[in-house]
Each structure stands twice: as C-alpha cells, then as structure tokens.
TrEMBL record:
CDD domains: PKc. Pfam families: Pkinase. It comes from the Eukaryota. Coiled coil: none annotated. GO terms for molecular function: ATP binding; protein kinase activity. This is Protein kinase domain-containing protein. Residues 110-439 form the Protein kinase domain.
Length: 481
C-alpha cells in the first residue's frame, strides 16, 4: 500500500495490533475490534478524506487479514484460550487435500482430527520426544457449535485442564484451545500412531519380533508409566493456582478414565532412533473426553454421564449396571496388558486371532469380543466369568517357547489381580503400580529375566480365587435398584 509513513499516526491514536481486525461499517466509519463485549471505538484517522481515500480503505480491509495470524503459546502451564476472528488466516502450512483442505486423519460424529504443521514463527512448542525438521500437531475440531464460554462445560476440555499441571510423561497434554468459525478447536502434539497401529506396524509376524532385553525393558517401562499415569488420574490433586478451573473442579479429587483401549494409547516415536529398541518411543494416555472426576465420597458414575465406554474392554459391572469406577479401569488395563503380551509372543496376527476367538466364544445372540461372558442361573442371579478362550490364551502364552520370567509374572498379575469379576478382588491402582515397578526393576537388573524362563513352568492350580469357577457378582435386587 506504500503507506508506511502513516504508522506514526496510528501510534499517536494509540492503535495497535490488538485492535485488529478493524470493522468497516460504511463510508469512512471504521471501528476498532470490539473487546470483552464492548463495542468497537471509531478510528479518527480514517475520517479524513485527504489522507485515506476509498481505494486505500478497501485495500486496508483486504490486507489486514494477512497480519492477524495468531502466535500460539503452547508451553505454558495454563491452557490459554484464543478467540479468533473469522477473517484470521491460520498459520498452518501443510495442506494435503486436493481441494485445499487440511488433511483429515480421523472423523467422527463428534469431532474431526486433522494433521497440521504450524509455522515455526507462530508457536513456541518444544517437543519432549526429540527435535525434528518438521513438527506436526493434531487439531481436533468439535462438530458441535460452541463458544469459549460454553466450552467451560465441555467434559474433555475440563478434564485436560485438570491434568495440565501434572506434566506426566505418559499423559498427552492439551496445548491450546481456540474458537474459530463457530467451532471449538483443540491443539495436541501429533502422535505417530496408536497402540494398535504400533503392534501392526512393528513386527506383525511373531517370527520376526526381536525379543531382546532392550525391547523387554522398554515394554516394562511403558507398562509402569501408563499405570502411574492412570494412578495420577485416579488421585489427581488440583493445583490451586489454575484459576481457569471451575469451583466444582477444585472439589473433585477422584477420577476414573473409563475409556482404556489401545486406540486411546498413543505412540510417539523417538526421531532418528527408530532402530534402537530401547529408544523406540513412548506410549501415552489420550482422549480424556470420557474421563471425569468426583468428590471423596462419590467415585462411581453412570456410563452415560461419563461419555460412554468401550465395549471390548469394559468390565462386567460396567456392562451390567452401567457403572464406571476406578476398579473398572483396572479391568480394562488388564485386558490391554494381556493383548500386549499376546503381541509380544504371538505377533499382531495373534492379537487379531485372539479377538476372533473371543467373538466365537460369546454366549450372546450378537457375538462380542469382550473378555467375559454373563450367565443367568436360578433366582435370577447374574454371574460373570472369563471366557474359556481367555484361559486357553493364558495357557498358550505361559507354555510358549517365546515366554520368559517377565511374561509369566505379567500373566500372573493379569489373571490373579486384574481380570477379576469381583471388583474387591482386583488390585488397587497403587498395588498395580507397585507390582509393575517391581517387574520393571527386575528387567533392569537381569537380562535372563527378560528373555528366558528360569523358574520352571508350573501348572496353574484352580483355587477359590480362580475365575475358572463361576463367581456370582450381581443379583436381581442390585439390577432393579
């Protein structure tokens, strides 16, 4: 526009970048951007026809959008909300769609997740997973029209705000939220895949999987880290300095995740170190949309109030009376842990075969790959037990030539303390973390522990704790209460 000489006039009228975008009403009436609900103030500079003709005004209106790309502060402890004008040009570089749209990776009825590259001059993010020439982010756009005000009640955003102060190595952080074009958006670090994709991509054939000391140590470290992340969710202490939280959030001290499944465990690989098994990357808990927190005397919540649940990994009590508790998370964690051991010993094809076996093993009209079956007995008593296919798989894994002391300890933990129909027989999250810490330390101290069976393979002896026996867990009275 060749009007750099007018910069001083803007400064003298105390007009700065924060006043953009200007609102061009009619004629020479131009307003500053409204602030905090207050109407914009007229700009006197544009009222002089001898200084700003109509062509210059039109050019300013067109060009101002190019100078409004936001700078995202993504490294702060507090999640900063950005309210972006509809004329703002986002500083996203990577456009892969032939129609000019951002690459859509995941689309559901509730949200669209796109992979974007933010211009390095417009963010301050430093990846904890290593440096890279290109840094990608996941932008999650909620399908429902929301404002930042209504976002205060959004379950997922409130959940992420509560864990922001944790900076846990195995919980994905929400980096920023912004409102744009009547939609709410959330910015996350971009993951290289979820746990299912990791299993499928890395050594789908059991014969090609290098069951080395380094891989075993990596797995044990990830199990411990994920369990510790879950414990932090269960026993989250709210940072009182986070003033953007609602008052009721400060009173809620207990959480349960309610959505543990391989798709919600994300894999972040270590750049430039893909070949080293001990540097294969990190697994992190994501998708806190179904997670919620409750006060000290209210740890249970109904499924619909928790944003639903995942059928495959749901616990018997969640499936029966639609209640999600911290104990429900322990069951789901046990299911995922068992599938991880299946992958290690039998490969990705073994994971798929295991799911199909559970489908065939269902006693319902519509087959399900859940890990248990319900049985109805006299007096309208509902009972649950592990499917026989789960027991067969546990036995196969123990007897496999690819097994080890590590794998047997994991299988014992899964069968005796995680996949229990009675909730009071399941391990607490503290116990789970403690046992996985012991296993992790054993891996670090002994290579043989990770890759060999040194103690002999003892047959499992049924006892009153064995889930092979039908165990009553629900009654008609509870169902109708």
């Amino acid at each position: 526009m060749n009007r750099s000489k007018d910069i001083r006039a803007f400064i003298e009228e105390e007009i700065f970048d924060a006043d953009l975008p200007f609102e061009f009403i009619s004629g020479r009436r131009v307003l500053r951007s409204p602030k905090k609900g207050k109407p914009g103030v007229p700009i006197r500079l544009f009222m002089h026809s001898n200084v700003w003709d109509y062509l210059s005004l039109d050019l300013f209106e067109d060009y101002q959008n190019r100078f409004m790309a936001p700078y995202f502060r993504l490294m702060t402890r507090k999640i900063r909300p950005y309210i972006l004008h509809r004329c703002v040009v986002l500083p996203f570089l990577r456009i892969e769609d032939k129609n000019g749209a951002y690459s859509v990776e995941i689309e559901t009825l509730f949200s669209v997740v796109s992979r974007v590259e933010i211009h390095p001059a417009h963010h301050d993010y430093q990846s904890p997973h290593g440096s890279s020439d290109k840094m990608y982010f996941a932008v999650k756009q909620l399908q429902k029209t929301e404002t930042l005000e209504s976002a205060q009640a959004n379950r997922e955003i409130r959940a992420y705000k509560r864990v922001t102060s944790i900076h846990h190595a195995h919980i994905v952080r929400l980096l920023a939220i912004y409102a744009y074009l009547d939609r709410l958006h959330m910015i996350f670090p971009w993951a290289d895949g979820n746990l299912y994709q990791f299993w499928e991509k890395h050594f789908p054939d059991a014969c090609s999987l290098p069951r080395s000391h380094s891989l075993a140590k990596w797995m044990a470290n990830q199990f411990y880290g994920l369990a510790d992340g879950l414990r932090r969710i269960h026993k989250l202490e709210v940072d009182p300095s986070l003033d953007e939280l609602q008052p009721e959030d400060h009173r809620r001290t207990h959480g349960r995740y309610g959505h543990i499944k391989p798709e919600n465990i994300l894999w972040f690989k270590s750049p430039g170190k893909e070949s080293a098994m001990d540097q294969i990357g990190k697994l992190m808990i994501s998708d806190l949309g179904s997670r919620d927190f409750h006060g000290t005397f209210s740890k249970d919540v109904e499924v619909h109030a928790a944003g639903g649940y995942t059928s495959t990994y749901t616990s018997p009590e969640s499936d029966f009376d639609k209640q999600i508790t911290p104990e429900s998370d322990i069951w789901s964690f046990g299911c995922v842990l068992l599938e991880f051991v299946v992958w290690y010993i039998l490969g990705w094809h073994g994971v798929r075969d295991f799911a199909e076996q559970r489908n065939v093993d269902s006693n319902t009209k519509i087959p399900s790959d859940q890990f248990f079956n319900f049985f109805e007995y006299k007096h309208d008593l509902n009972e649950a037990k592990l499917k026989s296919s789960v027991y067969r798989t546990l036995a196969i894994l123990r007897e496999s030539d690819a097994s080890s002391d590590l794998m047997i300890d994991l299988l014992d933990l899964i069968e005796s303390r995680l996949l229990r129909s009675r909730t009071y027989e399941r391990a607490s999250c503290d116990e789970l973390v403690a046992q996985l810490d012991t296993i992790k330390n054993s891996c670090a101290g002994s290579e043989k522990y990770c890759v060999q069976v040194t103690r002999g393979k003892l047959a499992r002896i049924p006892s009153d704790l064995s889930e092979k026996l039908v165990t009553p867990v629900f009654s008609a009275e509870r169902k109708n209460s």
